[in-house]
Amino acid sequence: MKNFIVRTITGIIFVAAVVASFLRPEAMILLFSIVTGLTVWEFTGLVNERPGVTVNRFISTIAGVYFFFAMTYYCSDIYGGAAKSVVFIPYLITIVYLLVAELYLKQADPINNWAYTMLSQMYVALPFSLLNVLAFTASPEGLVVFNPMLPLSVFIFLWMNDTGAYCIGSLIGRHKLFPRISPGKSWEGSIGGAIVVLLVAYGISILDNGGLYLNDIGIKPCGMLSMPEWLGLGFVVVVFGTWGDLIESLFKRTLGIKDSGSILPGHGGMLDRFDSSLLAIPATVVYLYTISLF
User: Fold this and answer.
1) pLDDT digits (tens, 9 = 90+) for 19-71
2) Residues 138 and 144: beta-carbon distance below 8 Å
3) Pick from 58, 23, 17: which is nearest to 37 by CA?
4) Which of 2, 57, 115, 226 would you label with 289, given CA atoms 20 to 30 Å apart?
5) Quick check: 115 and 53 in contact, CB under 8 A?
6) pTM recorded for the entire structure
7) Rounded Cα–Cα distance for residues 283 and 262 (Å)
8) How many C-beta neighbours within 10 Å does residue 258 have?
């Protein structure tokens, strides 16, 4: 009972923090730069427990956070002036350093170190950085504006999918979705979660296309997606969010651990909390760019 209360309180605070961060661009940037740093630090700490692996946690974390800020600068005009791709040069130099450094460190298996170092950037830093692509969009006048509706919707879909899958799976779940990786997940729960998300996506599409402007909290739906496109986005988030969850479960099973950390009481670590989003965010970006071509 005590653990349930702790988990509930932590969950409420977590959701409130994420939602509140999207009310202002500065808050979103601050929160997710911290999240990026903590998650890269957690990931590199876990892989460093493996025999023969020695990843430079500090530089990998600094690189991941810098990449997030570089993407913010590139995607927005929040710092003033035109975004310049030169901002990525320090990040590239850092990556080259992490590769070249293995020549002189004389580690037993430098390939492992290279692989896990690059994975910390591709698996963790890149997805969080892509939130900037979703949050900063060009207006019809050609100005870059902050509109949190798309990135916030991704998290809402993920939360609704988890809630729907848990509730429906607990009630009627019989057929295991992926017993080798996650014995608790069922096909019934996954389908139920998807239905809940599609209903939520339909509701968001009505808000987005119905002329409702939520000025008081800084969110301005503007008909950016049609109803079928919102439903498609919901489906993409469900599929890739589920895969993201399973990938992190496989990661933990490979390491032989139950939770990735303990920074969030009752919820484990940062990877435990953001596992679904690490695949759902890049998939959302690909989906939106794809539908923009047609």
Assistant:
1) 999 999 999 999 999 999 999 999 999 999 999 899 999 999 999 999 999 99
2) yes
3) 58
4) 115
5) no
6) 0.91
7) 28
8) 9
